[in-house]
Amino acid sequence: MASFLVVGGAGYIGSHMVRALLEAGQAVTVLDDLSRGHRAAVPPEVLVEGDLGDGRLLDSLFSQRPIDCVMHFAAFALVGESVDAPLVYYRNNTAKTLELLDAMRRAGVGRFIFSSTAATYGEPEALPIAESHPTRPTNPYGHSKRFVEQVLSDCERAWGLRSVSLRYFNAAGAHSSAAIGEDHAPETHLIPLLLQVALGQRPQLSVFGTDWDTRDGTCLRDYIHVEDLCAAHLLAAEHLAAGGGSRTYNLGNERGTTVLEVAAVARRVTGHPIPLVDAPRRPGDPARLVASSARIQTELGWRPRLGDPTAIVASAWRWHRAHPHGYRS
Question: Where in the chain is the domain with CATH 3.90.25.10?
């Protein structure tokens, strides 16, 4: 059994990871300031409420608990918000991560799994996007993540830190039990927004551009089920525990689904008409983002089990029906 510190473990992806670790028989400590996470998303006995930038708190956690590996999910992740408030993003996503890494160095903890993002690539030159694709972020969110990836490489050279950076494409869906799911305020992700229309919580969904260079004119994205993401993290942890070196991996299904196609799936799953309205393009939105996950499939044997869009939307619908007001339900 290993012992994990999961930073940001009360958030959407982090809470699913906590559950996956506990189900795998691992010891877990969650550090979350609950600014965007939810107390109800994790067992109370594993939660420590606090700031990942608090060096004294981190030193205390590492001295009191035999942490073997740190998983970091505590970033802010709204592209538009990052453009409007870049310093907030660099402070939370970058500067506070440096505090975490420095505390790990002081404690002699040498294994780190980082939630990175496809936003590190910027506008794609070719599809599917492989890890060898140039990284040219187009917004502060992507820059804040790419900078941490560079820091991790520098820390490996300086003091032997071994890390796995996982570049997510579009995380979606909810746990198969419907006990935990996606609850953001404000909500900006496509699938929850569609389901809020089906629940009568908003009248319609805005489609940001219908003249993109895609098969139906709407943006094309690679959706990956959150439980498949967690499976990749478990494999990454096993890789590091076995002495494996630092790696960067994409996580996606290697298939693209357009906004209109996701909306059609949501209509079938919910039985609701889900009206759509055209809206102007959003600055910085690429037309198409599709991952190549060949590297992690070859090296770690990862395979997405829940890649079908219907499975992803259906799992999210079960969560939203059971929790129509999120964790406040």
Answer: 190-221+254-328
Residue 45 above 80 pLDDT?
yes
The residue that leads in pLDDT, 185 or 33, is 33
Its CATH architecture, for the domain 190-221+254-328, is Alpha-Beta Complex (3.90)
121 is catalytic: no
Mind listing the pLDDT tens digit for each residue in 58-98? 999 999 999 999 999 999 999 889 999 999 999 999 999 99
Please state whether the predicted TM-score (pTM) of the whole model is above 0.90. Answer: yes
Contact present, 264 and 190 (Cβ < 8 Å): no
**Tokens for 238?**
């096993």
| Tokens 């299904």 belong to residue | 253
160-164, 184-188, 314-318, range with the lowest pLDDT: 184-188
- Answer whether residue 283 shows pLDDT above 80: no
pLDDT at 1: 84
Contact status, residue 194 vs residue 271, Cβ threshold 8 Å: no
Write down the mean pLDDT value for the chain: 96
CATH 3.40.50.720, domain 3-172+224-251, yes or no: yes
Catalytic residue among 89, 121, 141, 168: 141
In three-state form (DSSP H/G/I as H, E/B as E, the rest C), the secondary structure along the chain is CCEEEEECCCCHHHHHHHHHHHHCCCEEEEEECCCCCCHHHCCHHHEEECCCCCHHHHHHHHHHCCCCEEEECCCCCCHHHHHHCHHHHHHHHHHHHHHHHHHHHHHCCCEEEEEEEHHHCCCCCCCCECCCCCCCCCCHHHHHHHHHHHHHHHHHHHHCCEEEEEEECEEECCCCCCCCCCCCCCCCCHHHHHHHHHCCCCCCEEEECCCCCCCCCCCEECEEEHHHHHHHHHHHHHHHHCCCCCEEEEECCCCCEEHHHHHHHHHHHHCCCCCEEEECCCCCCCCECCECCHHHHHHHCCCCCCCCHHHHHHHHHHHHHHCCCHHHC
Domain with CATH 3.40.50.720 in the chain: 3-172+224-251
